[in-house]
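To the wet lab folks,

You asked to see what we're planning to order before we commit. Fair enough. Below is the target structure as tokens, and below that is the sequence we designed to fit it. If anything looks off to you, flag it before the synthesis order goes out.
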């Protein structure tokens, strides 16, 4: 296909979902009712929903067929064995524990290994990961390489963990570190991949300090594709083989099947440690369900088992990564500040750079996200000071970056939908000087971005 420029989606449409073409006046009303928080909108009022790529993808014909094989036996269902086999074909960890989504896996894991006085390093903790670490009383530290904190810095593996910083942490506080985490791809660092070389180096440090290494593997297939494309010596290697090498470097993982499981729900922690697995299963039974279904129906287990086979397909991954870059390239060419290089699942607008007149504590990311929705019905997600600006002690301070994430649901929107997004973002960017910041009038105690209500500043 290299002769042609057009991205041919490696599927055709089998079942359609209508989109409501709302007006600016309708969206103004919706914003007011939602307290200018896009999480509070009725999704019917959204035209192109780029809030998240989590659980929002389209399932394939074969996944819907697999759902018909769902066996709802309470214990030992054939669907559980199909799921287990599919997970272990890529991640051969001894214990796999099904949960209803990724954060349940995190909650279970950090309830056992977290706690006051503990510190968990990661390249960049995802919001629910950080929240679960902190809820346990432990401290979450982000150790991404310096390039990973600069939106415009180019680096092929901008999600890499800073190995020297990890070594310093382990030398200083080794006894307090129960596990080292690496998130692939680094979602909140811009969907940036981690190299195989970096994972090997992190493994070596973990070995030196006798620490287990866990993957937050939500986008493992996208990460493996970047390794194949960008890392010397990896080109042309089968994706499942790269994934298995990644898995071989780790002692366990947490996973949200709503990402590279190509499913609408599901997740799991997995590990080799028998004692840890036993502790996790005890909590699983209290909070999720029996060990062979966890938080899932048999039919969900089947959808995930099939999704894991499809997500490592090269035609799919080429289209996936290429179509995300298509959005990024068009915005970049229009002079709009975006995080580069482009990540796998999303394009991140640098709101702090686009709205220099809105200070971080007036939430430039929120202001831009609200404008994209008002003008074009596009729902993105602020990733910045609203999400990360409140410290556990209640202080408010600017986050490292103020971004708006435009996450692309898998296999869901066509190129003309994305062309529309490009048109709207350009229109809003040309008028960025007119945008005003917001203030928070009401906020929940944890993960405030989900429930906060705002008011535009005068
Ligand atoms: C989505 C996500 C999670 C949490 O998964 P949920 O299924 O949303 O609970 C954890 N880590 C990363 C990197 C994610 O992208």
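Sequence we intend to order:
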């Amino acid at each position: 296909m290299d002769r042609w420029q057009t991205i041919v989606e490696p599927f055709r449409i089998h079942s359609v979902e209508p989109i409501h073409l709302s007006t600016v006046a309708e969206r103004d009303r919706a914003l007011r009712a939602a307290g200018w928080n896009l999480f509070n909108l009725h999704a019917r009022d959204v035209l192109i929903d780029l809030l998240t790529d989590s659980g929002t993808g389209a399932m394939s014909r074969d996944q819907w067929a697999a759902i018909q094989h769902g066996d709802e036996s309470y214990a030992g269902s054939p669907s559980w064995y199909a799921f287990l086999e599919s997970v272990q074909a890529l991640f051969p960890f001894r214990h796999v524990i099904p949960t209803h989504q990724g954060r349940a896996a995190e909650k279970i894991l950090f309830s056992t290994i977290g706690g006051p006085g503990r510190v968990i390093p990661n390249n960049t903790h995802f919001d629910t990961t950080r929240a679960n670490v902190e809820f346990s009383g432990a401290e979450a530290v982000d150790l991404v390489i310096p390039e990973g904190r600069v939106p415009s810095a180019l680096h092929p593996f901008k999600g890499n963990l800073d190995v020297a910083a990890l070594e310093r942490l382990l030398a200083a506080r080794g006894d307090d570190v129960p596990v080292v985490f690496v998130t692939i791809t680094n979602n909140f660092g811009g969907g940036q991949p981690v190299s195989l070389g970096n994972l090997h180096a992190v493994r070596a440090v973990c070995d030196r300090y006798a620490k287990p290494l866990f993957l937050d593997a939500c986008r493992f297939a996208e990460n493996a594709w970047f390794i194949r494309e960008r890392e010397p010596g990896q080109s042309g290697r089968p994706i499942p083989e790269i994934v298995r090498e990644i898995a071989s470097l780790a002692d366990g993982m947490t996973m949200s099947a709503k990402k590279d499981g190509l499913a609408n729900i599901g997740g799991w922690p997995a590990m080799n440690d028998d004692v840890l697995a036993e502790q996790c299963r005890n909590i699983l039974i209290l909070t999720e369900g029996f060990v062979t279904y966890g938080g899932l129906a048999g039919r969900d287990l089947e959808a995930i088992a099939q999704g894991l086979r499809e997500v490592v397909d090269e035609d799919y991954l080429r289209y996936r990564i290429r179509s995300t870059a298509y959005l990024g390239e068009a915005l970049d060419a229009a002079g709009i500040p975006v995080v580069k290089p482009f990540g796998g699942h999303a394009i991140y607008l640098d709101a702090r750079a686009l709205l220099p007149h809105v200070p971080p504590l007036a939430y430039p990311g929120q202001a831009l996200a609200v404008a994209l929705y008002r003008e074009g019905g596009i729902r993105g997600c602020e990733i910045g000071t609203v999400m990360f600006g409140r410290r556990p002690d209640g202080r408010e301070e600017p986050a490292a970056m103020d971004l708006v994430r435009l996450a692309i649901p898998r296999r869901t929107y066509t190129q003309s939908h994305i062309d529309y997004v490009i048109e709207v973002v350009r229109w809003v960017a040309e008028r960025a000087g007119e945008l005003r910041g917001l203030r928070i009038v009401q906020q929940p105690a944890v993960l405030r971005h989900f429930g906060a209500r705002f008011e535009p500043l005068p």
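Structural context that might help your review: The pocket of pyridoxal-5'-phosphate is lined by residues 54, 101-103, 126, 128-129, 183, 187, 216, 218, 256, 258-259, 267 (CB under 6 Å). The chain has two domains: 24-53+314-456, 61-311.

Thanks,
Computational group
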